[in-house]
Amino acid sequence: MTYAISGECCSDASCVAVCPMNSIHPSPGEPGFGTGASLFIDPRTCIDCGACADICPVDAAKPADESAPADVARNAEYFAASEPLDALDLDSWRPPTYELWGGGPRRVLVVGAGPAGLYATRELLLRTTAEVTLVDRFDGVGGLVRYGVAPDHPQTKQILSSFERIVRHERVRWRPRTEAAGFEGYDAVVHAVGAYHSRRLGFAGECTAAEFVAWYNGRPGASLPVELGGPRAVVVGNGNVALDIARLLLSDEDRLRSMSPAVRRTLAGSGIKEVVLLGRRGPENAAYTQSALQELMTVAGDRVELRYHARPTAWSADGLTLDTGETIAAGNLFTAIGFEGRPIDGLPFDPERGVVPNDRGAVVDRPGHYVAGWIKRGARGGIGVNKACAQETVQTLVSRSRGAVSPGSGSPRCS
């Protein structure tokens, strides 16, 4: 019996490294990695060893006979158009090995304990002998995994246990509720602060994805900026976050049981019975995954209307007015039109892209400073992409800091 990967896959890609048959794709660096619904296991080469299931942080890899038939079919379909198998190639393939880089940094500050910051920390622990100080403005690790992943996706949140093991490492100094200040005493600083501010339409009364998601996930200090009222809501956006918002607005109390009682009561009592998902471009430009759309249709398919090629021009008590002249009557407007990074003190910033200019993670014209995650490449890609991104940054960091000695002895220092 082969294994299959379900739609709960986080694309962490740890399974790729442990698979003895190179059966899991797309792997980091291959076309489609980080852009599709999940990774996939090739049923033609899987040997049923279970290594993927043992290492998967979200329990997405399962024996095919314990998986949903749709998941088994998706895994097989991914490889249906592949080239015929070459037995010689399979026989000669070896799993990747790790090499300890020598002469690297001794002290590194990592700012941000989301996926990018934690994977950067993990890579530093694996590849160097550096001591890592990890700071975050919140109490817990995980960033958008903790405060961004929808609470009705508890399997994805299981990766938090892996992140918590990283901060317990003997070479990690974990400093929650701490804002980065001075950088003296560090050979390098990795800024992994994310891009968690929502882009806005600019209408009074709109509720952004950042506000709504932070509230329903119980992020410290978050509150709901609008009063929910039915019977219809409009969600502007065509990505997975927009679909998450629509799904949770239309879920019954049983599906919302993982939320706090206050959030659950507010959602259940909102009176919202219908959601219009509005895309400003066409369906061919939709950024949501097939599994996210399928889940929404399963939960509330007859209460969701998909609209495309319409741009909002005004929001009032009458509803949302479009550039076509039509007004969609609705009690609430939610906007999930993307996230953007904000400038970091002392570093250059590209306001058009919302990123810190960098060369493979090394901040331009700021020796000793590095970036990883969304602040490095823009607000796109999930957990697995952030892992590959952090690995690239650490490789750049180490290659640029070989031969570094203790501060005050001529070593590269952060400005």
Can you offer a commentary on this structure?
The chain is an alpha/beta fold. The chain has three domains: 3-92, Alpha-Beta Plaits (2-Layer Sandwich), CATH 3.30.70; 107-196 and 341-400, Rossmann fold, CATH 3.40.50.720; 199-337, FAD/NAD(P)-binding domain (3-Layer(bba) Sandwich), CATH 3.50.50.60. Helix content is 28%, strand content 17%. It has helices at residues 14-18, 51-55, 69-78, 87-92, 115-127, 144-147, 154-157, 159-167, 209-216, 240-249, 261-268, 290-300, 374-377, 383-400, and strands spanning 3-5, 24-25, 40-41, 61-63, 107-111, 131-135, 172-175, 188-191, 197-198, 207-208, 232-236, 274-278, 304-307, 312-316, 319-322, 327-328, 332-335, 339-340, 358-359, 362-363, 369-371. The strands form seven sheets. The protein has a five-stranded parallel sheet, with helices on one face. It has a five-stranded parallel sheet with strand order 10-17-11-12-13. Strand 5 (107-111), helix 5 and strand 6 form a beta-alpha-beta unit. Helix 5 crosses helix 14 (383-400) and helix 10 runs parallel beside helix 12. The longest helix is centred in the C-terminal third of the chain and has 18 residues, at 383-400. It is globular.
